[in-house]
C-alpha cells in the first residue's frame, strides 16, 4: 500500500516511500534521526537505529585478532547453543547470552531479495568509502557469512527466521568484521564458549 501524503512534508513522504520499498522498520522511529546526507544515508541510519539494549551494551572494544574462526551455525546448534531471531531490528544487536549449561545467540534479520540486493551493495560501498559511516552493515553480513558453511547452515538459519533469502551471502565475499566492533567481541565470546571441554564433548556426542 502506498504511503499517504496528506499532512506530510515532501521530505517525510520520500522517507515513507523508502521505508515501504525496502521493508525497513517502523517509520515513526525515523523521527529520531538527524538530517541525512542523501537517500542512502537515511536507509543506513534506519538499519542501525539503536535499541535500548544496544545502548546499554555499547562499549569501546579493544582491537584483538581472533586465533580461531567461529563455528558454523550447525556446529553451534550441535554444541547446544540456541540460535534465535532477535526482536530488535537494529543490525548492531547481535547478542550472545550464556549460562552454566546453556547459551543463546540472538541475531536480527534483514530481507535481501532481487529488489534490495543492489541497495545493500550500495550500503556496503557507502560504509567503505564514506568517512564516519561505520561498518555495521558490513559487520552484520560478514558475521552471517562466517557461520554459514553449507546448505545445512542455511536451512537451520531459515528455520530460525534469520534468513529469508540466501542471496545476501553473495554480497559478503572478501569482507571482514571490524576487530574494534561489538560483533567481533560476540564472535570471540562464542569461540571461547565452544572451546570448553564439556561443550566440545556434547558436540562430538551429537555426531555419533
Largest sheet: 3 strands, mixed
Order of helices and strands: HHHHEEEHHHHH
Secondary-structure-based class equals mainly alpha
Taking pLDDT < 50 over at least 5 consecutive residues as the criterion, the unreliable ranges are 26-33
Distance between the termini: 52 Å
Give the averaged pLDDT, no decimals: 75
What general form does the structure show? elongated
Task: Describe the protein in words.
- This protein has helices at residues 10-21, 39-47, 52-57, 73-78, 117-129, 136-146, 151-159, 182-194, 197-207, and strands at 81-85, 95-98, 103-107.
- It has 208 residues and is mainly alpha-helical.
- The protein has a domain at 63-207.
- A three-stranded mixed sheet has the order 1-3-2.
- 28% of the residues are buried.
Summarize the structure.
The chain has nine helices and three strands, in the order ααααβββααααα. By secondary structure, it is mainly alpha-helical. The chain is elongated, with a radius of gyration of 18 Å.
Amino acid at each position: 500500500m502506498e504511503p499517504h501524503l496528506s499532512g506530510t512534508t515532501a521530505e517525510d513522504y520520500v522517507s515513507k516511500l523508502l521505508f515501504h520499498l525496502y521493508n525497513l522498520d517502523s517509520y515513526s522511529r525515523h523521527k529520531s534521526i538527524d538530517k541525512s546526507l542523501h537517500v542512502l544515508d537515511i536507509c543506513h541510519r534506519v538499519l542501525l537505529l539503536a535499541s535500548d539494549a544496544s545502548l546499554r551494551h555499547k562499549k569501546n572494544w579493544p582491537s584483538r585478532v581472533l586465533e580461531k574462526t567461529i563455528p558454523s551455525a550447525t556446529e553451534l546448534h550441535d554444541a547446544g547453543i540456541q540460535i534465535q531471531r532477535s526482536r530488535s531490528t537494529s543490525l548492531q544487536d547481535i547478542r550472545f547470552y550464556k549460562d552454566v549449561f546453556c547459551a543463546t545467540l540472538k541475531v536480527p534479520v534483514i530481507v535481501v531479495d532481487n529488489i534490495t540486493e543492489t541497495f545493500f551493495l550500495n550500503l556496503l560501498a557507502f560504509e567503505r568509502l564514506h568517512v564516519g559511516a561505520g561498518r555495521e552493515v558490513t559487520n552484520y553480513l560478514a558475521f552471517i557469512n562466517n557461520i554459514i558453511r553449507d546448505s545445512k547452515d542455511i536451512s537451520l538459519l531459515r528455520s530460525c527466521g534469520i534468513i529469508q533469502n540466501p542471496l545476501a551471502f553473495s554480497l559478503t565475499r572478501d569482507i571482514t568484521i571490524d576487530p574494534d566492533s561489538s560483533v567481533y567481541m560476540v564472535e570471540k565470546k562464542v569461540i571461547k564458549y565452544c572451546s570448553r571441554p564439556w561443550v566440545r564433548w556434547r558436540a562430538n556426542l551429537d555426531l555419533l
